[in-house]
Amino acid sequence: MSNKEYLYSKKKKSIDKQYENFKRIWKFLNRIKPIQSNSKLLDVGCGIGNYTSLFKNKGLKTYGIDINFDFINFAKKNRKSYFLVGRSEKLPFKKNKFDICICNSLLEHVRDWESIITEAKRILKPKGILSISTTNTQHPFQGEIKNFPLYPWIPQVFKNKLLNYIIKNKKELINYSDHPAVNWFTYNQLKKYLIELNFKVFDIWDLVSKEDLKNHKKILKPFLWLFKNKCLKYFGFFFLRSTFLFAIKNLK
User: Fold this and answer.
1) Between residues 128 and 226, which one has the greater pLDDT?
2) Do residues 191 and 241 make contact, with C-beta atoms less than 8 angstroms apart?
3) CATH number at residue 36
């Protein structure tokens, strides 16, 4: 399957999931601080621009960047934002340009993930917000490789061997991606790195409220206070498929 074929094979279920994820990001961004209209947002690893477009509809001035030429070409023809081809490890923007930087499902696909975060810090204004969604080693299930439950718990050395085999022989299991997930994170790992870069960090349990726990997640309501406890929240990360963090760039 070529990149162009992949662009037009998006299922409605996937689009609906992206919209729900966008609503969650937007809600939590505004809980950290109210987002002003005309704020500048950069969507790093924007793909075909679905998230970029949703933020554009909120009145933000939006930019999207991706390494994939076909994705950006599609976005330019079908989205109303500024898009360009480029590397997330070396962003072609001046420092202190953006109010918000989104890295959604990106860090797991780039071996030099640290450079993505340092570049995000560089282009963010002081008190700008970085939003990260990526893999979670603590959760037993994942969506990166089909038909492999418990994959996040496999030791990294075996992950590497298995992924190499899939790339060579079963590429349909990774949606024919040229950049499959190679990095797996924990909340504490990413949080520690962000703090070292002088970010103020919020995890999902810092921001979630009882009103957010709907449908099957209702069963967690009586335990929410545990997950908000600084020492006990570690166990709450086992319930989350993704590592979801927000970070404010400090003034110094």
Assistant:
1) 128
2) no
3) 3.40.50.150
First-to-last C-alpha distance (Å) of the chain? 47
Identity of residue 27: K
Collapsed DSSP state (helix, strand, coil) of residue 177 = coil
Structural domain boundaries, residue 183: 3-249
Q: Round to whole Å and give the CA distance between 199 and 47.
A: 26
| Measured CA angle at 174 (ends 203, 55), to 5 deg | 45
Are residues 103 and 116 in contact, defined by beta-carbon separation less than 8 angstroms? yes
> What single-letter DSSP state applies at residue 150?
T
| Total domain count, the chain | 1
199-203 vs 98-104, strand pairing mode? unpaired
* pLDDT per position as a tens digit, 200-230: 999 988 998 888 888 877 888 888 888 888 8
Q: What is the spatial distance between Cα 204 and Cα 13, in angstroms, rounded to a whole number?
A: 24
pLDDT tens profile 95-108 = 999 999 999 999 99
- pTM of this prediction? 0.87
Report whether 1 contacts 9 (CB < 8 A). yes
